[in-house]
Design goal:
2 domains; alpha+beta; 26% strand; three-stranded antiparallel β-sheet; Alpha-Beta Plaits; 123 residues
């Protein structure tokens, strides 16, 4: 999701940080990054990584997501845009994927079998 604010940068940042802090507590969110563009202070990118395909819909039902959406709606200089991507990196040296699951715990998905085992906290 990319958002562009006009004159409400600090208010937008506060609302977005509050949403992000609550979002990372959800069991279905593996990551929630808030990125501020260096060369244009009015542009932000929110990178949301979910554990399952149904978790984005669950996130959108939360009170903090509704509060954020309603708070920043009038701050948008242009409509929000979003895209969906599949992660294919990082891989371990043997070709296994490192997945970030609930509560940030790392898991290793063995190449070819689709099964994951916990390997510890984030590196």
């Amino acid at each position: 999701m990319y958002v562009s604010t006009s004159k409400f940068i600090e208010v937008f940042k506060e609302a977005t940080l509050e949403n992000a802090r609550n979002s990372v507590q959800e069991p279905g969110i593996a990551r929630f990054d808030v990125i501020h563009q260096r060369d244009d202070a009015t542009r932000f990118m929110l990178v949301e990584v979910y554990c399952t395909p149904t978790d984005p819909a669950e996130h959108k039902k939360t009170a903090h997501c509704h509060t954020w959406r309603d708070t920043v709606a009038e701050m948008m200089a242009e409509p929000r845009t979003a895209s969906s991507r599949l992660r294919f990196f990082p891989l371990t040296k043997d070709g296994d994927r490192i997945l970030y699951g609930r509560a940030g715990k790392r898991r290793k998905e063995t190449a070819g079998n689709g099964r994951a085992s916990e390997i510890g906290p984030p590196a």
